[in-house]
Amino acid sequence: MLAKGTKMLQMHTLRTLNENPKLRDQMYNDRRRQFADRLKWSVSIDDKQREIDQYDNRSAFYLICTDRDGNHQGSMRMSSTNENFMIGDHFGGDFPDMVLRAASVWEVTRFCVSPELPNFAQLEIGKVVLRGVSHFALAEGIKEFVGLCYPPLLRIYRSAGCRPDHIREGIKDASLLLVRWQVCAKKLSTLYGSCSDLGKTNPTEKVAA
């Protein structure tokens, strides 16, 4: 069982992540195990068996949950829709009236939990990551998140207390869902309530330019 005080939230840019190669490679390897090995997605794998794509760049932010020893437990990547982002570049035609480019709207991708964790722990880590992302959004003036998911991931979002305001099925693939949800203090309070063992951890303290 996950004991109180054993989880830590960290916010990284690509530069600060590269200063912690152990954590960086654990995250990329867990992403490969989740998206390539288990879900069979067609994703880019480098010669070190890490899942990395063109959106792992200087514009990305990474919210990472670690254990007490600094090992990757779960993570999510965030990018402003004011710049190149995955949904706008590759899926805009599937959701023509749902994709916005605005400084206050950010894309979330690569929501990943370590496959080594038992199922109940994976759900708890998912809650922790979503709470941290929401906290970061409030601190940075982000008003809304947009992301792609399939029904199983949508169920994880909902079980973690994150209920999207808008859900749209893809034109080409009805099982592919675009979800959008607004960020507000009330919703964050709901996530806090489901992750109360984290105390007052503030992931924005880890941000570095």
Summarize the structure.
33% of the residues lie in helices and 22% in strands. The chain is an alpha+beta fold. A hairpin with a 5-residue loop joins strand 2 (61-66) and strand 3.
Supply Rg: 16 Å
Biggest sheet descriptor? 7 strands, mixed
Distance between the termini: 35 Å
**Order of SSEs:** EHHEEHEHEHEEH
The domain tally reads: 1
Contiguous uncertain segments of 5+ residues: 1-5, 194-209
Structural class: alpha+beta
Report the total helices.
6
How many beta-strand elements? 7
CATH topology-level fold name: Aminopeptidase
Percentage of β-strand residues: 15-25%
How would you name the CATH homologous superfamily? Gcn5-related N-acetyltransferase (GNAT)
Q: How confident is the prediction overall: mean pLDDT? A: 82
Strand order of the largest sheet: 1-2-3-4-5-7-6
SSE arrangement:
Layout: E1 8-13, H1 14-18, H2 21-38, E2 61-66, E3 72-80, H3 86-90, E4 105-113, H4 119-140, E5 144-149, H5 151-159, E6 166-169, E7 177-182, H6 185-194
Parallel strand pairs: 4-5
Antiparallel strand pairs: 1-2, 2-3, 3-4, 5-7, 6-7
What would you say this structure looks like, in words?
The protein has helices at residues 14-18, 21-38, 86-90, 119-140, 151-159, 185-194; strands spanning 8-13, 61-66, 72-80, 105-113, 144-149, 166-169, 177-182. Helix content is 33%, strand content 22%. The protein is of the alpha+beta class and 209 residues long. Helix 4 (119-140) packs antiparallel against helix 6. It has one domain (8-206): Aminopeptidase. The N and C termini lie far apart (35 Å). It has a seven-stranded mixed sheet with strand order 1-2-3-4-5-7-6. It contains six helices and seven strands; from the N terminus they run E-H-H-E-E-H-E-H-E-H-E-E-H.
